[in-house]
Structures are given as structure tokens and as C-alpha cells.
């Protein structure tokens, strides 16, 4: 980690919104710590029944809740984390440069760079799932991963899309209807020139200049951001959050169109959707009469269990995120809580070939203060089976110190896949990832492209040091476990509509837009065909 202080490294990895933060923070938390709270005998048990239960409030859960509610269906959304309200000058989210208890999910052992930190237990934002050769980062909170992602919102080209996804999804229909619908919901915009030309945005300009000089395509990246907030920051009208990259783990000022303020807000406005926060699903069962039974812990913000709930429903939608959806279903299958699950469950998992680099230059002045989150990227998709994307991500200012460092992030098409196995001792499904899973796309495309842009500057491959991903995909994939609309094969009333449904890779794009578009497509079909019969 030459030329980069530990504090600068933490700030930069958080700013880039990819997995290098994960391993140093929580990679040593191999075993969940369990509940911190009263003995089970002192916890009240209640029972409820609902027409539809959705587990998770990220992109898949948000789309599901809104579209079912608009079709007249009442929905209960179970979210294990908190609400994170924002607004000008708010202090809701923690800062990457001064992390506190809000950054970590209470079940993980609080560690920074392998050393204990004195954080109190909290229902925080980031939860690491540690597997063999890979750590996957999961978000907790209303809005799921959209709370903490940088916001790159990319629609893959058709020929790249078809390297990973079945043609039966009908890309033309997705491109005509569902991707544009997501773009409207998230109110996508690219950064205005007036902002990009300002002093804090020198690092993005350097990236664009270097990439063009290397003969690479360069374009602005669509983002779910109202950029007038950043312009107002430049004018001194609010505390900086965008213009100094302080919003790398959640934007306090607002203006970011995350799922909580788009899909979930509209869903709740129908009057048919209830979002239950700090409701963590612990077990899933199929009852003898064909209903679904969900065992839930309601906790306080310290993770103490206040109430046990058993919730029964004829329709259960798993949208808890790739890792948690897959692990819950695999545990249920292994313990015969759900019988006859498809054989492909737990297979087809991928990291989206995520890669993050710190980039330190002796000749370029990236700036002690760098505006963010993301402006430019290079979408090199001319060879579909080897398509990659590389973007620049700014880092938060650390005490005004100019480390002459910024970040580059890459991802690309990869056939590398891992799988989960059930460990009865841990009562958990453990990810098994081959150490060379994404080696081909990394060694032949992402790495060489990043080095072309850096042109001899110092690069640190942080993912090579700490193998991890913020974009886990697969585990209950379409085709093997589910149909294209997320119906789990042979399990009436059970659906998967999140990253677990994806085929392990999102075609050289970060996955948020495709997860949402495929969920939108699925809900069109489910409303037409399942509402009133199964749902």
C-alpha cells in the first residue's frame, strides 16, 4: 500500500463504493456473534398473517412493493436495518474518514485493518459475508444497496447482455420498456459541465484526459443524483457532501434518488405497503398447508431482540440481497424446512468481476479535495465476451492532506463462478469461490486498461490484496432455480427478485439498473398472471 496512508486508503475505498473496504473492516468476523439481548424466555412471541411478505427493501424489494401495491395488493416489507433520512446539512450517515458505529452491522466483529475498534453494537450500514477466497459486502437499511452505492447506473449493450442472460428475457422489450422505466424512477442525470469544470472536479478531468490519450472511449456516467445539490454546495449554500466526496457511505445532503425515496416512498404513499424496520428474518418454512412461515426478530438499534414474530403468508418474495436470500433458502432446504428445492440452489454465484485500484501520481494533482461521486467512465464494450467498464471515483478529503491519490474501479464480463455449501456446525451456507475466478478478465482486460490510463503512475490493486465484492450476484439464478419472473421452481408462492436471481454477472455493468429492470419486467408479468390466483 505504498504512498497511501491507511486513512487515505479507507477513505478512497469507501468513496469508490467497492469491496476494498470490506475485508479490512470485517474480514476476520468468520462467525456471527449472535444476539446481544435478553434471554429468549423474556422475549414476547407474536403471530401475524399477511397477503404478501417481501423480505428486503432494495431494488428488487422496492420494485415489488410498489408494483404490487399499484395492482391493489397489500404488502408487508421486512427490513432488518434502519431508515436513513437525509436533507441539507443532515448528519445521518457516517463519514469514511471518521468511521463510527453506524458503519457496521451489529453481528460482525468490529475490525479496522484487522484491529479491534471500540464501536458499540449497532444496526449499521455494512455487513460482510466472509467466504472462501471472497468477502461479499451487503447493505442494511431501507433502500438496501442504493443507500451506499456510488450510483453508476448503466444499461448493458444487447450483445454484451446476451453473453450472460438468456435471450428469452427479450432485450428489445427490456430496452423499450423496463430500462427506461427505471431511469425515470431514479431520475438519472450526468454531471453538468459547470460542476465538472470546477476546482474540486480536477481528478475526473485527469481521468478523462488520460483515458482519451490511451485511445479509450470516455463518457459521462448516468447517476441517480440531482446535481443542483452539488452546485449549491459550491456556492456555499450547504455543508459539502458531493463536492468533497464526504457522501461516499451515504449522502447526507439528499439529492440522491435511492430506492427509499423513490420506489419505497411511492409504495408507502399508496397506503397498501407497510415497511417494518429492524425486522430481521432468521428462518423460512413451508407449512403443511402450503403457506410460508417467516420467523423474525424485531430488534432495537443495538441489535437486542425485543420481539419474536412468526409471520404467515401465501406469497413470499425473497429480496434480501444475493447473499442473504441464498443463505436463508439454503439453510431452509438443508434442514427440510422447505423440501424439494431446485438442485441449482447455491450455485452460479459471481462477483461481477469487481476490481478497485488506488492511483497515486507524482505528476498529476488530483486535489486534496475531490468532488464526486462519479463523473466519467470508459465503457469498452466493442468485444462482447471481453467487455469491461473502468470508472474514476474520487476520495474524501482527509484532514486537508493531499495524498496525490484517487481511485479507479473496474468490472467486466466473466464466466467465473462459485457456489455455497451448507455447514451444519455454523448453521449457515458458506460461499466457496475459486481464487482465480475472475483472473482472465482481470489479467487480460481490466488490469491492462487501468495501467494504460495510469501511464506508469503507482497503482495498488486493493482487490488483489483483499478479494471482495460489493456486487455479489447469483445463487438462486434464473433458469436453474427460478423462471425468468423469479418464481422458484416447484414452490408455489415463493419468488426471488433480487441479485440472487441474476446469472452471476451483469455484463460489464454494475448491477443495480439490470436488477431493477428485470424486477420491473417480472412484476408486469406477475401482476398480469399471478395476482388473483397465486398472489
Can you describe what's shown?
Its EC number is 1.1.3.6, 5.3.3.1. Its cofactor is FAD. With 535 residues, the chain is α/β, with parallel strands linked by helices. The protein contains 13 helices and 22 strands. It has helices at residues 6-16, 22-26, 59-70, 158-161, 171-186, 193-196, 202-213, 228-234, 263-269, 322-334, 439-454, 462-465, 512-529, and strands at residues 44-49, 52-55, 75-78, 111-112, 115-116, 126-130, 135-139, 219-220, 273-276, 279-286, 292-299, 305-313, 315-318, 355-360, 374-380, 388-393, 405-412, 419-423, 428-432, 458-461, 468-469, 494-496. The strands form six sheets. The protein has a six-stranded antiparallel beta sheet, with helices on both faces. A five-stranded parallel beta sheet has the order 9-3-2-13-22, covered by helices on one side. It has a four-stranded mixed beta sheet with strand order 1-12-11-10. Strand 6 (126-130) and strand 7 (135-139) form a beta hairpin. Helix 3 (59-70) runs parallel beside helix 13. The chain starts with 5 loop residues before the first helix and ends in a 6-residue tail after the last helix.
